[in-house]
Each structure stands twice: as structure tokens, then as C-alpha cells.
Design goal:
With 157 residues, the chain is an alpha+beta fold. Helix content is 37%, strand content 18%. The protein contains 6 helices and 5 strands; from the N terminus they run H-H-E-E-E-H-H-E-E-H-H. Strands 1-3-2 form a 3-stranded mixed beta sheet. A two-stranded antiparallel sheet has the order 4-5.
Length: 157
């Protein structure tokens, strides 16, 4: 889920980046950010997936945070702070890859527009057709994907 590197470069060079502590969000120079960080979820605010209406909203460069080599954009400071406190609670499952594909023993990109929050966890699917298949047996596909993920994770890195 790579976001346009020119956008990231603009974010990094603008000086409006935020860091929420070295343990969770390591400091990067603007050049390092532009070279190494990718904007996750196509720039959607990951916390917004978990809010009351459950519809993701676009994040803004003014509210950027970094975790595990990726940049996360938020729609407001409150969501950035929430993420900074417990980032793992908001990260998509299976590294942001398609949950249905993981259940099949494969890796496919997840799409930030095709998602479900199930039992407090965010799952992405490749597209609408794949999501329709996944919705037929969400719990079964999650269980299969969880069994497959350790091996798939190693191959995805």
C-alpha cells in the first residue's frame, strides 16, 4: 500500500511532521523519511476505521506519525495521539495484506476501501469481489489466515 512518494517528500520537507516518542515513532530526517517511509492505507486515517460510523476518512500531512517504517496520516491531532498510544491496536491484520488471500495461503495487497473491523481488528481485502467471498465465512477465513500468516509474513519481507 504505497502512497505517492512525491506526497511523502512534500510532507517530509514541510517540517510539519509529528513524532510521538522515540520508542514507538523513531525520529527520521526528512531525507530518510522520503527514502524509507511509505504512507500506509493510501493515506486514510487508520483510527477512523474504528470510530462510530466506521467509515475511513483521509488523513492530512499535518497529522503524520511513523511506525514500523510507514507513515500514517490522521484527520486530526486526537486520532494521531490515540494511535501513538497503542499503534498495534489499529494496524490492519496480516500486515495490511488481503485477509482472504492470506486464508488461501497467498499474499495480495489489501485495499483501504475494502475492509471490515471484526472483533476490534481491521481486515483488508484485495477488491470488492474478493471481499464478497471473504464475507461468506469471515471467522473461518480469519482462522485460516492466522494459521498461514507466520509463513506468509516471512515470504512478504
Amino acid at each position: 500500500m504505497v502512497f505517492n512518494r512525491r506526497v511523502l517528500l512534500a510532507i517530509a520537507s514541510s517540517g510539519i511532521l509529528m513524532s510521538a516518542g522515540a520508542a514507538t515513532f523513531p525520529s527520521f530526517s526528512s531525507q530518510a523519511l522520503a527514502a524509507e517511509a511509505e504512507v500506509a492505507l493510501n493515506g486514510m486515517d487508520v483510527v477512523s476505521y474504528f470510530e462510530r460510523d466506521g467509515k475511513p476518512v483521509p488523513g492530512l500531512p499535518a497529522f503524520a506519525a511513523f511506525h514500523n517504517g510507514q507513515s500514517y496520516l490522521f484527520s486530526n491531532q486526537k486520532n494521531a495521539d490515540i494511535f501513538a498510544g497503542t499503534p498495534d491496536a489499529y494496524l490492519p491484520q496480516f500486515g495490511g495484506y488481503c485477509a482472504w488471500a492470506a486464508a488461501q495461503g497467498s499474499i495480495a495487497p489489501g485495499d483501504s476501501d475494502h475492509y471490515r473491523v471484526v472483533n476490534g481488528k481491521l481486515y483488508l481485502n484485495y477488491n470488492a469481489e474478493v471481499q464478497t467471498r471473504w464475507l461468506n465465512d469471515i471467522s473461518g477465513f480469519i482462522a485460516k489466515a492466522e494459521r498461514n500468516w507466520p509463513q506468509l509474513k516471512a515470504s512478504a519481507q
